[in-house]
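User: Before I run my own analysis I want an independent prediction to cross-check against. Here's the chain; please return only the structure tokens and, at the end, one sentence I can use as a sanity check.
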Amino acid sequence: MVVQDSVDAGDARVGVPLEPFLHQVGGHLSLMKYDEHTVCKPLISREQRFYESLPLAMKRFTPQYKGTITVHLRKDSRGHLSLVANPLKENRGPFKVSTESAAVAILQTLQKTGGGGGALTLAQWQHTQLAHSLNESPATKLLRSELHLEAQVPSLMEDAKGNQAEKRSFNPWGLHCHQAHLSRLCTEYPENKRHRFLLLENVVSQYKHPCILDLKMGTRQHGDDVSEEKKARHMRKCAQSTSACLGMRICGMQVYQTDKKHFLCKDKYYGRKLSVEGFRQTLHQFLHNGTRLRTELLEPIQRQLRALLSVIRSQSSYRFYSSSLLISYDGQEPPETSQTTHGSNAGGVVKVDIRMIDFAHTTYKGSWNEHTTYEGPDPGYIFGLENLIQILQDI
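Assistant: Structure tokens:
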């Protein structure tokens, strides 16, 4: 992550309060909501360079790159922490956080639900997270925050009858990443330190109930620049998961269940344990809304995957190590008369979206400071796409 000098007093007065992105289903870096159509994430120089030199043929299959912003940690009079973005002068304007947004609704619910039953408010939760972080390793801290989310957040989201209200249904992974990120920033950097974030298109902003599948693609996940210890760890994860035999593994998932009015969620730990048959069943589950299999999704998803496969085959020297593929569609079924597909106005087909994300370890000929260059297209990524298309054909 890129860190800059301290923020000046003038910049500190103008800012956009960032919210956790509640449709983040995978990854470990916190993805934040900047506005309705834009998300931001900690800037990694290699990823920024990739977006800035992106081949034209790949732009259809990646989020739109919208530049960078400065972010700093802000502590209010009660000691509560938040992240605030300072946009460029030409982009500065009035910014209002909608009280109807999912993130605000959930945070307000967390704050209102305290006292009885041992439930923690958001402020108490943050305080507990930060108080322990000084004496814990990063791995322990992440594990504890994950367990805390599983234990606390679902109970806070239920009404008096134990039912989950539709507007309160969310994937806890985004909050998990956000809290871990806040803890790290608080312990490693001074409060007024500036950090650079990437601004990217929110590719699911068009959906009412975004159903998202995050697939870690390829048979190799480690970059050329990692330590031997990290390389061994990533190779072990690949060998023990479907990455080795399928060229992909599930890194996160949420699918809207129309019968229960909430999201069914799976995380990367679930994905690592899956067998090939388990992967197939989970992919089937991703296309099932609790009432029926969304068979109308199969053809447009396969069509876009074939188009992406053609693009990847044409990109010589690129290696998309540790990159993910997002497959998304709307859990809210549209009327037949208004159904469209991504990049087409053809009627009768639901809207689906295929995007490549996470390029922190992507390498290609001509990229800066590369010690290794490769010939031809990425074989691991191609292997994964071919298997994914075949499994969807079988379904």
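Sanity check: The chain has two domains: 3-201, 210-394.
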